[in-house]
Design goal:
The complex is a heterodimer of chains A (179) and B (158). Chain A has 179 residues and is mainly alpha-helical. Chain A contains 9 helices and no strands. Helices cover 78% and strands 0% of the residues of chain A. Helix content of chain B is 27%, strand content 28%. Chain B starts with 12 loop residues before the first helix and ends with a strand. Classes of the chains: A mainly alpha (179), B alpha+beta (158). At the A-B interface, helix 2, helix 3, helix 4, helix 6 and helix 7 of A face helix 1, helix 2, strand 1 and strand 8 of B.
């Protein structure tokens, strides 16, 4: 029998100021959020800050009475918005399309511990548009349904299907000559 | 477009790439402690960010007010809007009338109101006196019957 507290119970704990409940909520949801944010932003350090912001906002919302129907999707939506904001801020700093070129180049910087294959995947992912990267990661890496994605991203299902399809097409093309 | 366009062939490189992406590393250790420290840092930054003594006092008042958790059954609605915007709360609980629930300014760009609502699921939004329609930043988004952005909250039974 699974005796782990439900998300709803943990959320009530957070509302009552129980930091252990917040910690358990993090343990449960942070791995998937971290994976998404790391791949979207292509930086584990930036992803870590996004996660901190996500849980700060979630805690604040819970303490003012918000009770999400689907806690996992709700946390994803906050994290996706934080990733978008962070990318927009970065985009303004480096400027326009030059910024995307920097993302793509950054993804090809040699990492002493990374394998060539992993670098190529990151490079290919970095060359997708942000909306295509977002849709691809949520669909294929996080395994969400299009309906769940629509709740999180705020776009319609047909548009999301199109983004995923184009992202796959582009990635297939990018990866076809590797290894 | 049908779903088969999205199915990945297990023998193709993209499938292997997805497997690699799914195997990403875990969050950095100590996330709860770092999150708590960052939350304190944000509050401190807000506290010292006032440009005058009066504003600082107002900011501290707003922070103290915000830190006070609503009583059971109460929901605090909050939105960022300019101090002179004038903000109303509209939703399924007040027939979407803009003159029934007014928010109170808290600090330089935050508006709040606390309500007691019976258990249920409610769509709601904030409307400025200028007619701007604002969804809640942290509640689930949904479009209303006219295609305007609104939010949804569920009040659980206790």
């Amino acid at each position: 029998m699974d005796v782990r507290p439900t998300d709803a119970l943990l959320i009530e704990g957070v509302a009552a100021g129980d930091s252990a409940a917040l910690g358990m909520l993090m343990d449960r949801h942070a791995p998937a959020l971290m994976r998404y944010a790391t791949h979207f932003l292509q930086s584990a350090d930036d992803a870590d800050e996004v996660l901190q912001d996500t849980f700060i906002r979630a805690e604040r919302a819970i303490r003012r009475g918000i009770r999400p129907d689907n806690p996992s999707g709700w946390l994803f939506r906050i994290a996706v918005n934080r990733c978008r904001s962070r990318r927009r801020r970065w985009w303004r700093l480096v400027g326009g399309e030059a910024g995307e070129a920097v993302i793509a180049r950054a993804a090809t910087q040699p990492d002493v511990e990374a394998k060539e294959w992993r670098d190529e995947i990151r490079r290919a992912l970095g060359q997708l548009s942000p909306s295509a990267r977002e849709a691809f990661l949520l669909k294929h890496v996080e395994g969400l349904t299009y309906e769940e994605m629509a709740e999180i991203v705020g776009a319609g299902v047909p548009a999301l299907k199109m983004r995923v399809s184009r992202a796959c097409e582009r990635l297939r093309d990018q990866l076809k000559d590797i290894r | 477009m049908t779903d088969h366009h999205d199915a990945l062939d297990p023998t193709e490189r993209l499938h292997a790439a997805v497997e690699e992406l799914r195997a990403a590393g875990p969050p950095h250790p100590g996330l709860p402690a770092r999150t708590a420290a960052r939350a304190r840092q944000i509050q401190t930054r807000r506290w010292i960010g006032g440009s005058s003594g009066v504003l600082a006092v107002l900011t501290v008042t707003a922070l103290l007010s915000h830190q006070t958790a609503p009583r059971p059954g109460e929901i605090t609605f909050a939105v960022r809007a300019p101090a002179d915007a004038g903000v109303s709360l509209v939703g399924d609980f007040n027939e979407w009338e803009t003159d029934r629930v007014r928010l109170t300014p808290k600090g330089k760009d935050r508006w709040e109101v606390t309500l007691r609502l019976p258990p249920g699921r409610y769509r709601f939004a904030y409307v400025t006196d200028g007619g701007e329609w604002l969804p809640d930043a942290e509640a689930a988004p949904v479009l209303d019957d006219f295609g305007r952005p609104t939010s949804v909250l569920t009040v659980a039974s206790r």
